[in-house]
Amino acid sequence: MLWFIISMILLLVGAGFIAVALANGGDGMGSGLTTIVVAGLLMIPACLYSQDAGEVVVLKNMGGSIAGYSADAGFHGKLPWQSTVKYDTRNNVISYVAKGKEDYDGGSARGPQVTVNDKNGAQADIDIQVNYSLDPKYAMDLYKDYGKQTTFVKSVAAVDVRSVPREVSGRFDTIQLLTDRSKYTAAIQKALTAKWKGMGLRVEQVSVQEVRYPKSITSKYAEAQAAEIDKQKALNEQEVEKTKAETKRIKAQGEADANKVLNDSLTDNVLRQHYIDALQNADQLIVTPEGSNTLIQPK
């Protein structure tokens, strides 16, 4: 718009020079023509604009009405009295971490941590980052409602990134937030996706980087964890002792069963046969007749 105004001023000045030159018989005509040529050259940037990849450009007429939009990277033409408003469509990040300073840049924003209350009423501070993209087709609607992209982010997107985690945290108790952060993160992403669907915003990724409870809560949780570990250790030791005792019982039962089988198999006939076999294999045999003290040594 500035180049257009300057060009118009120079064009009028050049036309004035030419008019005066014509009134004076043509003297000074060159100055007027030179001024008009310069005005024409300055008109080029007023009719041309560049657009980077990942941007959408909304064209605005001098009166404030919207002429259209462009989503393709490169150089584009426009009417000299039209101005451009750029929106970032990708790589937009809203990040709230620790004691960060509040700052806005196009579709991105930064700021301090978000404070939430869980299902048990306990308060915690979370660090969260949301990556999102903008559907170019919605750029004109956003401009109609909010003007520049920074205004939209301040009024809507950044507010939602704070409010949605607070709403979702009420579904999770303290233990869940401390131990199952991934489920909490997924719930936030699902809620944001539903809320932004009609605005042309697509949630690319949500990252809950840290959940910080007061020391009084984390200390009690650590104590409970330690007690649970001791309990589990004791239960494991009991299982080991039970296994050892069962092993001994099985072994003893096996030996008893084997002895029983052996005893049952030793009948009188079997014992007599073993006795005869032993006599046959002896190198020297001494016989004592039953009821006698006389020893007989056979050859």
What is this structure's SSE topology?
Elements: H1 2-23, H2 29-46, E1 48-51, E2 55-60, E3 66-70, E4 74-77, E5 83-88, E6 92-96, E7 103-105, E8 108-111, E9 114-117, E10 123-134, H3 139-146, H4 149-169, H5 174-179, H6 181-196, E11 201-212, H7 215-265, H8 268-280
Parallel strand pairs: 6-8
Antiparallel strand pairs: 1-4, 2-3, 2-5, 6-10, 7-8, 9-10, 10-11
Helix pairs in contact: 1-2, 3-4, 4-6
Domain Band: 46-225
GO cellular component, one term: membrane
Keywords: Coiled coil, Membrane, Transmembrane, Transmembrane helix
Shape: rod-shaped
Q: What's the main sheet like?
A: 6 strands, mixed
Low-confidence stretches: none
Q: In CATH, what is the class of the domain at 92-213?
A: Alpha Beta
Radius of gyration: 47 Å
Structural class: alpha+beta
Mean pLDDT reading: 83
Distance between the termini: 142 Å
CATH homologous superfamily classification of the domain at 92-213: Band 7 domain
Q: What quaternary form is this?
A: single chain
* H and E string: HHEEEEEEEEEEHHHHEHH
Annotation, overall tally of beta strands: 11
Q: What helical percentage do the residues reach? A: 40-55%
CATH architecture of the domain at 92-213: 2-Layer Sandwich
> How much beta, percentage-wise?
15-25%
CATH domain topology of the domain at 92-213? Tetrahydropterin Synthase, Chain A
Task: Give a verbal description of the structure.
The mean pLDDT is 83. Among the domains are: 2-85, no CATH class; 92-213, Band 7 domain (Tetrahydropterin Synthase, Chain A). The strands form three sheets. Strands 6, 7, 8, 9, 10 and 11 form a six-stranded mixed β-sheet that branches. A three-stranded antiparallel β-sheet has the order 3-2-5, covered by helices on one side. The chain is rod-shaped. Helix content is 52%, strand content 22%. It is of the alpha+beta class and 299 residues long. Helix 3 (139-146) packs across helix 4 (149-169).
